[in-house]
Predict the structure.
Amino acid sequence: MKFIQHNLFALFNFLLFAVLLWALLKKPLSVFLATRRERFRLNMENAAKRRRLADKRLEKCEARLMRLGDEVAEVLREMEAQGGKEKEALVGAARGRAQRMCLDAQRKTVHEIEKLKHDLHRHVVASSLGEAETILRERLKGDEAIGLVRSSVETISREELLK
């Protein structure tokens, strides 16, 4: 029986303690829990707002990235077009220079050939005159013949060399 009394007394003490605790802590605990609940709700609302802002920012960034990709492609197309135009201009200029070089080479070749022909002609005339003088000296004897040969050779050589 002492055991039961003791247990009843302990139970009564516990219940009294619980009631007093409840009476004393009801208001501060409810205020704390309400404040905590309100803080949690505000934090959730702020998090949702920040999430929406972050989503909008993300959409703007993705749209900008898409535009940048298009802009890069456009710049590349423009560069390729300009490069093609420059290439055509350079090729055209090179072809023009090549044609001028060919014409200059042809003119120089023609000039050199003409010069060589003239030099050959002078050499042939000089050789022919020398041979003619030698033949005439062998066939003609005397001072008159020599004078005639010399004057003829000089006249012919002057005329031929002037050509």
In short: The chain has two helices and no strands. The helical segments are 2-139, 143-162. Residues 2-162 form one domain.
